[in-house]
Structures are given as C-alpha cells and as structure tokens.
Design brief:
The chain is an alpha/beta fold and 343 residues long. It is built from 15 helices and 14 strands. Helix 3 crosses helix 5 and helix 8 packs parallel to helix 10.
C-alpha cells in the first residue's frame, strides 16, 4: 500500500499509477524461467470517497480487485461512488461466510457434458450454488475470490470435492456408468503442500476411480502460479486424475505456454463459442485451437453451446465434448438424476 499525504497541489492519481505500472511492468529471470509481472492498482481518496481510514483502505482494495478482474494486463482503477453497492454487497457476503453452514446453505449442481460424436452423456461439471435470503444468489465467480481473500477456500474446496466425489461414485455404481466429473480447483488449493495426498485419500474413501476425476484449472491460474502448482498437477496425473484448462482463449495464455504443463483437455471459453455464429474470424480461431490441441494429444470441450447453429459449426471442426444450455443447465442432484440417468 502506498499512502500519498500532505499533498499541496492537484494530485493526478492516474498519472501516478501509470508511473508505478511502468516501473513494475517488466520481466524477471528466476531459475532459468522468464517471469513477466503484471500490475493491478486501485486508489481511493480522503475525504472524497470516505473519511474512515479502514473504509478508505477497503475502497482502494475493491478498486484494485476491479482492475485485476477486468483486464489481463497492467491496469489501474479509481474507486467511485458507483462502486459502493458492490462494496457493500462484498461486505455482506464476507459477513455471511463467517457464519455459513456448508451442508445447510450450499448445494451442488451438475451440468451435463455431451460427446459430439455419439450425442451421449459422457461427464458432468460440478458447480457450487449459494442462495441467501438477504443477499440473493451468489455465483461461483463472485464467491470464490472472496473465499480466497478470507482464507477459507481450502475448507470450501474440500466440501465441494467431497460432495462431488460421493455423487459420481453413487451414480456410476447405481447406473453402471463410467462418467467423469469436472471439479473447479483454485490456486490456493493446488498450492497446499499435501493437496495431492488429501485428494487421493478422499478418492479412496469415496470409492471413486481416479480416472473419473477431472480437475478444471483456470488458465490464468496455470500461468500466474506456474511452478508452484506444477508438482500437485504432476503428482495427481500419475494417479490417473486428469486436468483441464478452463476458459481457454479468454486472453491469458497461448499454446506456447501450455508446453510447460501436462494437461489432458482444453475447455474453450464461452466468450469464443458465443461468437461462432456471427464471426468467421472466431471460427478460424476455434478451429485452430481444436487442431493444435489434438496435435498435442489433448481433448477439447466447447463451453457455452446454446444454439443449434453453433453446434452445427462445432461438430465438423472435430470438437470432442460440448456443454451448454442447448443440452441443459446445471441441475441439483435429484433433478440431474431424473433427467439424465433414470431416463
């Protein structure tokens, strides 16, 4: 944190932020790896934004978070009065999480994953859902960053994984299936020293075959954390757990960086898939991703397939698996079972 005090003249926050970005935006060589650092800066002003010092720091941090999640490059954001409702909601979520009961307040939903070749159900993605009477629905994109900030992601992630493993074990056993289940894993979980061992213990306790488990890692996580998560990934892959790069093509990385990791599947981002019907350039990009992925022996899943027109474009490209509202959204366990397994 940088505090600018006793300023006697007009202070240009943006100019000062850009000065910091120019100082920090460079590459560093660490153990033969070239690490490029990006910078996210948020600012708040006294007394314009608030007269409370703790709230001032919170406003600046909120602005920094907004800058970080709105861009993949060095960026700056100033707190504004329009941000207050979002900041207040964040405070409410934090307060609720301090007293939340996982089994009572959270529930898991499951979205089907369909083979392009056969049209059959081949897997599902596990997605956490939280609806509170005071704050309404909290989507995973909103929940996970706050949980990580609060240091409770390990406990939350353990609950999600346990629920998901028990569910896929039950369904595959009861219906004679061999479905895989995709579970989103955060950087903080992968960084835990004994994460791989804990996962293998949970797999053994739930009766799940390790090849049924697919961990989805956001591509930003894979690139930003690099070596720090590589050991966990390699250890689990030796036990036949697979890894998918989620949201691929959203701007963080390229295939040249994928060489450093051993993944099994690429999930093309909804952003790209949604543009297929209206953009020939998007079609070229998606076809190139599929071809290069197959050249590296990676499977490809298209996320966010919502229209038959998009499906008609994806199918001849050779995409392996699709998921999206064209086939069905995420359903609670009982509804998923009735819709996809009992029938």
């Amino acid at each position: 944190m940088i505090s600018c005090v006793d300023i006697k003249q007009r202070f240009d926050e943006a100019q000062f932020a850009n000065l910091l970005i120019n100082l920090l935006d460079r590459s560093y060589e660490v153990d033969d790896d070239l690490i490029h650092v990006t910078t996210s800066i948020g600012s708040a002003s006294y007394p314009d934004d608030t007269t409370n010092i703790e709230r001032l720091m919170s406003c600046a941090e909120f602005a920094r978070g907004s800058a970080k999640h709105s861009s993949n490059t060095c960026t700056y954001s100033a707190y504004s009065e329009d941000d207050m409702p979002k900041l207040q909601r964040k405070f409410m979520i934090e307060k609720k999480l301090q007293e939340v009961d996982y089994d009572r307040d959270f529930r898991m939903c499951y979205q089907p994953q369909i083979s392009v070749e056969t049209g059959e159900l081949v897997g599902l993605e596990a997605l956490i859902r939280w609806t509170d009477s005071d704050i309404g629905t909290v989507e995973p994109e909103e929940l996970i960053p706050i949980a990580e900030e609060m240091g409770i992601m390990s406990n939350l992630g353990e609950w999600v994984l346990t629920e998901s493993l028990f569910q896929i074990s039950k369904w595959n056993e009861n219906y004679g299936k061999d479905l895989s289940i995709g579970v989103n894993i955060s950087a903080s979980q992968l960084e835990e020293e004994n994460f791989a061992e804990q996962v293998m213990d949970m797999i053994a306790n739930t009766g799940v075959k390790s090849e049924w488990v697919d961990f989805e890692v956001n591509e930003a996580v894979a690139i930003e954390y690099g070596r720090r998560i590589r050991n966990s990934i390699n250890r689990l892959r030796k036990e036949n757990v697979t890894f998918s790069v989620d949201d691929f093509g959203s701007g963080y990385t390229s295939f040249s960086r994928m060489i450093d990791f051993h993944f099994d599947c690429i999930k093309i981002s909804e952003e790209l898939i949604h543009r297929l019907a209206s953009s020939s350039d998007a079609q070229v990009v998606v076809k190139s991703i599929i071809d290069m992925a197959h050249g590296m022996n990676l499977k490809v899943t298209a996320e966010g397939v919502e229209q038959q027109e998009v499906m008609n474009i994806i199918r001849p490209m050779g995409c392996d698996v699709v998921q999206g509202f064209l086939f069905g959204g995420a359903l609670p366990a009982d509804e998923f079972e009735a819709t996809w397994l009992q029938k």
